[in-house]
Write a structure and sequence with these properties.
Shape: globular
Strand content: 15-25%
Oligomer: single chain
CATH topology of the largest domain: D-Maltodextrin-Binding Protein, domain 2
CATH architecture of the largest domain: 3-Layer(aba) Sandwich
Structural class: alpha/beta
Number of helices: 12
CATH class of the largest domain: Alpha Beta
Radius of gyration: 19 Å
Number of domains: 2
Distance between the termini: 32 Å
Order of helices and strands: HHEHEHEHEHEHEHEHEEHHEH
Length: 322
């Protein structure tokens, strides 16, 4: 994934913000960004930073509305059925738009037809982390330990079908490893179990990984980004360690389908400008999340391509949820 702002999006932002028509009266009240995860997590933190920087550009408050549940499906359903006037948006991710359609037998929204793409704004690379009690401090050591004990080592995730599980499966399959999956109902209890030594490994967001590793509670073996991240400059990427794979989640602003094109353009331009702000970039950096900045049509193509990429992994797991 590209992790720098689209030059075309940045250069065109001033013109887009000046559009007339439907955008000239938009917004006429607060804009709500629905984050389909709990408050306090990395996704929530960077979404709030983005919204805060967008507010003065739009001339109205931008508020975050946390609506967690069903691997992001609760919040996605709410936005899919909202009025398409630009005042209710969703922070979409691989879970809401790539994984859920493949794992839920009944899904109350269609990610391909119920949303209007605005901007992919972030890439959240996952770090492969092990408990300090496991006694390994490198990816090679972890692979050797797992191969010597097939099916005995465990890995946590924040839920069946989550991007945390999918990242682990992709990496472990490529390395020829067999580990036991232990799903939790959220990231926080999974982190707690890892620190306590109840599970051996986990793919987690870079920000929490850095915080847990700072005082030696866990060890970070690799990062799943294309390049090393500023938060963890001494942690090698999976590619550096010989694995031709990336492990990350992405975050995008989308709105309900049939939003006027001028409103989509204004929101996309505001997001692009907000990502340029040093305060926004500082918050992203502390969370180990990389700013992106894809414009609407590139966002549409990116989401479609990611759905195809993830499909093979999800189908191999044979996950079906009610």
């Amino acid at each position: 994934m590209r992790t720098s702002l689209s030059r075309r999006a940045v250069l065109g932002s001033g013109a887009l913000l000046a559009l007339g028509g439907p955008a000239s009266a938009f917004p006429d009240r607060a804009v709500r960004i629905v984050v389909p995860w709990n408050a306090g997590g990395a996704t929530d933190v960077v979404s709030r930073a983005l919204g805060s920087a967008m507010a003065p550009l739009l001339g109205q408050p931008v508020v975050v509305d946390n609506r967690p549940g069903a691997n992001g499906a609760v919040g996605a359903q709410f936005v899919a059925h909202a009025q398409p006037d630009g005042h209710v948006l969703l922070v979409a991710s691989a879970e809401t738009h790539a994984v859920n359609p493949l794992v839920y037998a009944r899904l109350s929204y269609d990610p391909t037809t119920d949303f209007e793409p605005i901007a992919v704004f972030a890439n959240g690379p996952f770090a492969l982390v092990v408990g300090s009690g496991l006694g390994v401090d490198s990816l090679a050591g972890f692979i050797e330990r797992a191969r010597s004990r097939p099916g005995q080592l465990t890995y946590a995730s924040w839920g069946v079908g989550s991007t945390s599980q999918i990242a682990a499966v992709r990496v472990f399959q490529q390395a020829g490893l067999e580990l036991l999956h232990v799903p939790f109902t959220g990231a926080a209890p999974a982190y707690t179990a890892l620190v306590a030594g109840q599970v051996d490994a986990m793919f987690m967001n870079a920000g929490p990984a850095e915080a847990l590793a700072r005082d030696g509670r866990v060890r970070i073996l690799a990062i799943g980004s294309a390049e090393r991240v500023p938060l963890l400059p001494h942690v090698p990427t999976l590619r550096e360690l010989g694995m031709a794979i990336e492990a990350a989640n992405w975050f995008a602003l989308v709105g309900p389908a049939r939003m006027p094109a001028a409103i989509v353009a204004r929101l996309a331009a505001a997001a692009a400008e907000a990502l340029r702000a040093s305060a926004t970039q500082d918050v992203f950096r502390t969370q180990g999340i990389l700013p992106v900045g894809l414009p609407p049509e590139e966002t549409r193509a990116f989401i479609a391509a990611d759905r195809e990429r993830i499909a093979a992994v999800v189908r191999s797991l044979n996950i079906r949820l009610d």
